[in-house]
Amino acid sequence: MVSHAQCEPAPAKINLALHVRERMVDGYHRIETLFAFARDGDRLTVGPADGLSLDIEGPFAKGLSAGPDNLVFRAAEALRQAAGLRTGAALTLEKNLPVAAGIGGGSADAAAALRLLARFWDTDAPLEPIARALGADVPACLVGRTVRGEGRGEALTPVAAAELSGRPLLLVNPGVAMLTGPVFAAWDGVDRGPLSSGDPLEVARAGRNDLEAPAIRLCPVIGELLVWLRAQQGAVLARMSGSGATCFALFDSAEHCARAAEQARRSWSWSLETALA
Ligand SMILES: C[C@@](CO)(OP(=O)(O)O)[C@H](O)COP(=O)(O)OP(=O)(O)OC[C@H]1O[C@@H](n2ccc(N)nc2=O)[C@H](O)[C@@H]1O
Ligand SMILES: Nc1ncnc2c1ncn2[C@@H]1O[C@H](COP(=O)(O)OP(=O)(O)O)[C@@H](O)[C@H]1O
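Structure tokens predicted for 4-diphosphocytidyl-2-C-methyl-D-erythritol kinase (277 residues):
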């Protein structure tokens, strides 16, 4: 029996809106985004060991390296070094989220590893700098609540989003892995303006995902998925997350979400019926 202290959820990340503002001199793009999290995702467990080890199980374990390049492993190594520890950990990742899907699986796993191992190793080494070094989405995943991200997405401002919590959410992936780099590279370079501020649902609805158009150009089935999601009864907002290909819909009721989820299971490669955290 795994105790609560030895288990940590790694919830799926959703970009409720993602505005691309400009290409910076280092080649990266400055973005403004509204991050939110699902109630479900991957799951990480830990047990005692002399060295560091990682096992991956679950529906998306296949093809994912469990070696030192895995973000869980990199997070564990970085924390061990920052805390000056020599202790090990036997980690098991239950990989429920598709890989390279725009829902931050790797970033969520890295953040979960930091939270879990800080507890397991009983260290108060600051986690935020480690998160920043691991990837732009990792600081937001470390917070794990609705938050606004600027810069590369790592400069965070908290958002009051109590009314979003529990909102029925459907995630759907058409079965294609999207690499983030080519999608940014296919952006047309037009700054369509900032993300507004205020009520997060209104900010999201008034916003856009500027990576949708380039992702659809690279992978037209994403456009078909968005048309399908927007036609579902009770869908109040349907959009692509991150660089895709996963798209999400927020629903006005759990019943409408369940009905769409049932259809999605028949029509699309992967889907997850959940709610916003
Ligand atoms: C788009 C977002 C939105 O949350 O999520 P995902 O789709 O990855 O989940 C993130 O900004 C993903 O940020 P990050 O995790 O740093 O992306 P990486 O995989 O490191 O980036 C791969 C490549 O994409 C390009 N890239 C990435 C981020 C950015 N702000 N500008 C870029 O131009 C760069 O060419 C980079 O080498
Ligand atoms: N624990 C992990 N889970 C998923 N991907 C990982 C992990 N560790 C490293 N990666 C690598 O990170 C890349 C991005 O994956 P992921 O975080 O799932 O997608 P995205 O950046 O689209 O949200 C993948 O191509 C994969 O090789």
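The two ends are 26 Å apart (CA to CA).
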